[in-house]
What we know:
By secondary structure, the chain is α/β, with parallel strands linked by helices. Helices cover 46% and strands 24% of the residues. The protein has a 5-stranded mixed β-sheet with strand order 4-3-5-12-6, with helices on both faces.
Amino acid sequence: METIDPELLRTFVAFTDSGSLARAAGIVGRSPSAVTAQMHRLEEIVGEALLEPVGRGRALSPAGEELLVHARKILAAHREAWLSLKGARADGQVSFGATQDFADTALHGVLRAFARTHARVRLDLRVGRSAELTKGFEEGAVDVVLTMRLAPMPDEVAVLREPMLWLASSEGLATAPEPLPLALLDPPCGFRNAALSALERAGRPYRIAATSPSLSGLRAAVRAGIAVTARTSRWIGADIGKASDRLPDLPEAEFAIRLRADALGPAADFARLLGDALDGSRAAGRRRR
């Protein structure tokens, strides 16, 4: 029986989740031609086509769908083993900061997995806005941060991209009146800048109906139905959804995971686990949409 190199599975998952050879190449750090060669090698081992034509693109074949399930399990087992071996004797502290968007939606599984493999490492968790977290990181008070990305930085270990969306309460009249009522965070805020720029380019009248220094205040205003806001799909739930009105397109939001250069080994382990987990959750979100 021929075994499958986990690197082939990692490339297969990256290609499946990203939807293109170019993006998969960026994820695994190889050239598009090398990714193509790896996909062909994987099909040779499996003995079946993993992709089939659908319209102008390609989708997973039945064999590809089945392999994807096994690939994720195998890679998760490899990651668990790697973390366990590295973390068994690790101790000390890891200071981690993240924005509220991720603290509410994506961190539970990451924290659980890290605590299981690094039982003696203490986690110092900070939740706040990107500006204050970045300040703490650059001053050396935080080892790993997950914040909105303003520019490429040499200490980034992963970059996540998610579409910005116009969001509103399922009840209320936020999208009905003119000018459009907005709920925005106090500056500086990348979402605020993107929303205002998009409306101004489109010539859509607006007024700032509510402001807040915190995401909890912003969420309260949107839930009340008094205003719309711009965030990502991480905010969508029973009481908040996509705004039904025809509003101008928004850009993608970029988030970066940054690791301090002088951080100890457990911090690097945590940053890697975080990047893997969030890339997987983003892919799941794309499939749900």
